[in-house]
Design goal:
By secondary structure, the chain is α/β, with parallel strands linked by helices. It has a single domain, classed as 3-Layer(aba) Sandwich (Rossmann fold). The protein contains twelve helices and twelve strands. The protein is globular.
């Protein structure tokens, strides 16, 4: 996955007492550290993500707003948003954008699922119960390590890791075999397993580039679509058939959709995403969908520029209505 160089393809501040039981059980250790980070019980009633480095990750300038704010065009400037933000452009963000506290609650794991072993990076309330679950599906030539990168993409993956760990949630970045049925079934198995560990927790699936193919395949799978509370497409594609699907037409089954796209994306053109947004709004005017266009941004830019907290809190608000 290419674009803007961010191809989607220090010690922490938490002091812990030496505890043999916790050190010998990674699962218990992760659960304990989540409580240290959050100080919150595992309840999702009225759940929202608290602020964390909001000023650094807020959209710099909204150039255009339509559909009561559901359609935004956001300014992107390479000098400001890459060169001035990164210590090494597109490779290492400046230190103030990240916190490595999350490494205390991060594990590289494997799940022996009914469809085979699935490797994944997990951060936060891994054993459950988590207040929310966010899963990132990488694009072509990517891996689970992409979505766990602290330093690339302007520190934006580090931000979602911190948002989940500090708010009693869990963040997952898995490997999968392909973008066809096998890959879809692997992600389905992982979602169902984490839904079991955290009953009732909202599950948000975010997809970069080609990963969107899996997102839409999951939506068409009746065994897993009911678990999805929101879909985030980051420089990805759309499914025109969704507009006439039972999910779109039945208010009880709808989940919010976010489309983030650069207007200089040569892999998936932004006009197609805009058309999908407008067609869905025309067919189902009250459908919860938002489109953010990053002006002059290329293919990988939405991963760097999307405001995770803003979008997820909107989705949580929709889910709680």
């Amino acid at each position: 996955m290419a674009g803007n160089g961010d191809s989607p393809g220090g010690p922490g501040a938490i002091a812990l007492k030496d505890n043999d039981v916790l050190r010998k059980s990674p699962t218990l250790l992760a659960a304990f550290l989540v409580l240290v980070l959050t100080g919150l019980p595992a309840s999702s009633a009225g759940y929202r993500l608290e602020p964390w480095k909001d000023a650094l990750f807020a959209y710099p300038k909204v150039m255009d707003s339509q559909f009561d704010g559901d359609y935004l065009r956001v300014e992107y400037l390479k000098k400001r948003d890459i060169e001035d933000r990164d210590e090494i452009p597109e490779q290492r963000v400046k230190r103030q954008y990240i916190s490595l506290d999350t490494r205390r609650v991060e594990q590289d794991l494997a799940y022996d699922s009914p469809v085979g072993k699935i490797k994944y990076v997990a951060v936060g309330a891994i054993a459950g119960p988590a207040k929310a679950i966010v899963i990132y599906l990488h694009g072509q030539n990517g891996s689970r390590k992409q979505g766990a990168s602290d330093w690339m993409f302007g520190g934006n993956f580090n931000r979602i890791k911190n948002l989940m760990a500090r708010n009693g949630g869990v963040y997952l970045s898995p490997d999968f075999t392909d973008f066809e049925d096998k890959g879809k079934n692997e992600i389905k198995a992982l979602i169902l397993e984490f839904a079991r560990r955290s009953p009732g927790a909202p599950i948000f699936v975010s997809c970069g580039s080609m990963g969107g193919r899996l997102c839409w395949a999951l939506v068409r799978d009746q065994a897993v679509v009911s678990k999805i509370s929101g879909l985030l497409l980051l420089g990805s594609n759309h499914d025109s058939d969704f507009i006439n699907s039972p999910v779109a037409r039945d208010p009880r089954r709808r989940f919010p959709i976010y489309l983030g796209h650069g207007t200089r994306d040569i892999v998936f053109d932004w006009q197609g995403e805009e058309a999908f947004f407008k067609d869905l709004k025309a067919a189902v005017p009250d459908y919860p969908i938002r489109l953010v266009l990053f002006d002059d941004g290329s293919h990988g830019l939405p991963i760097r520029m999307t405001d995770w907290r803003l979008i997820l809190n909107w989705m949580l608000e929709v889910e709680g209505r």
